[in-house]
Amino acid sequence: MKIFSAFLATETNTSGVMPTAGIDFENNGLYRGDASLRNPTGFGAAHVLLKQMAAADGHTVVESLTAHAQPSGITARSAYEQYRDWIVEDLKAALPVQAVVLFMHGAMVADGYDDCEGDTIQRVREVVGPGVPIGVELDLHCHVSEMMLTQSDIIIAYKEYPHTDTMLRLEELYALITRQAEGKIKPVTAVHDLRMIGLWHTTKEPMRSFVDRMAALEGKDGILSISLGHGFPWGDTPDTGAKLWVVADGDRAKAQALADQLGEEFWAMRHDTWQPPLSIKAAVEVARQAPEGPVILADVADNPGGGAMSDSTFILQGLLDAGVHDAVIGAIWDPGAVIICQSAGVGARLKLRIGGKCGPLSGTPVDLPVTIKAIVENHSQSGLGFRWPLGTGVWVQTDQGMDIALCTLRSQPMSLEVFENLGILLTGRKAIVLKSSQHFHAAFAPIAKQVLYVGAPGSVSQNFAEMSYTKRDNHFWPRVEDPRS
């Protein structure tokens, strides 16, 4: 069996201040046909695993594009169309194929395309025809459209947030799509629209048990796969919002019944699965009074993983005002400050203007006397099964002992490496401020005494009840208590 694979993904914050262009994909590593060789621990890792599984079963994989950009604003039309067309060209050259596996995000929006994934899948379908299975792996923060569902055969989303199961979901998708290609199953999908906007951490109850329940139902009584797409609240598209879907073997009615049943269970938990973030003042005070640390302060609204600029200074200023200096903060995206530090060199002491560069949601720049402690070229971190570039990383330390990590490529902290590879010590600190909504949790929660989610201003605000959309209706929970009536 010959399997065709391609990877095209970014998460689009449609209100993001910086568009996503070709250079943003190149910064994360852009490869056509050889990411598994040239970037095997980066996003090429998905192709590596797929090829290993296929080889073990006597199959071959034709690897096409690998293109991933850090979440940001709307993708340039020219970049999206070029990458999509490369995938189609490579597919035509690879024919005949017996299956297609696409690694996508599910919330990519380009100029002129609200549903990049649906558009790409449709064009792939036009090439392979109706008889070749198309399997798609999505981030759970996806917009699941009718086009995506009708033009593919199996869609599987990550179950975990943070996404610690990316490779497990690929293994699941591979097993199902090859079984379909061999004629052993006939997948059909049913969807339950939850009419909800929000975020749901699978690291705590009752979400933890709900995810475990989904997994326990799979592989039994003809149920092949169950996915809960949380949706991406900061992408304004006709399909924005949470949806749950069930893939069954040939029985759509059974799939719909289970999707509706689980959807009702999830709806019933809505008030127990979400807590609003703390104010900056309240969170900083908890950290200040904590008998021992570190206390994690998650700067959820300035998360570059949701398209924020990762340069806001609100929590930094809050720590300074409260006199909490035994703290670490990062990674702040500030290429200008990094260039100044590179010019001055390690060991230099200077007054550095940090953050606050990208508009009102970035806050006011903070001028701090600092000593440059380290400069690391090609700084990177592991996370979610891949390796993520941070560009040039810089560690600066204030006169009072606060450590700040700067970078030239935006990426939320998913590994202790963000700090430790610069030389910054984390254990025993009073506070650690992370520019992340949740993906920090797997690595940082084990070293933390407390984890606090902080509602500072930012372009990834979690005030879901106040969100308003132009391309979908605004009849959703929690904006409306019962949008189903």
What descriptors fit this protein?
14 helices; single chain; 485 residues; 8-stranded mixed sheet; 2 domains; 6-stranded mixed sheet; 17 strands; alpha/beta
What amount of the residues lies in strands? 15-25%
Helix content: 25-40%
Rounded radius of gyration (Å): 22 Å
Q: Into how many domains do the coordinates divide? A: 2
- The quaternary organization reads as single chain
Strand line-up of the largest beta sheet = 12-13-14-15-11-16-10-17
Shape: globular
Description:
- With 485 residues, the protein is α/β, with parallel strands linked by helices.
- The protein folds into two domains: 2-268, no CATH class; 280-462, no CATH class.
- Helices cover 29% and strands 24% of the residues.
- The protein has helices spanning 22-28, 35-38, 45-56, 77-94, 116-128, 146-151, 166-181, 207-217, 252-268, 280-289, 314-322, 335-344, 417-420, 441-444; strands at 2-9, 31-32, 60-68, 99-104, 134-138, 154-157, 187-193, 223-229, 243-249, 295-299, 327-333, 349-354, 366-383, 386-398, 403-407, 431-434, 450-454.
- The strands form three sheets. It has an eight-stranded mixed β-sheet with strand order 12-13-14-15-11-16-10-17. Strands 2-3-1-4-5-6 form a six-stranded mixed β-sheet, with helices on both faces. A three-stranded antiparallel β-sheet has the order 7-9-8, with helices on both faces.
- β13 and β14 (386-398) form a beta hairpin.
- It is globular, with a radius of gyration of 22 Å.
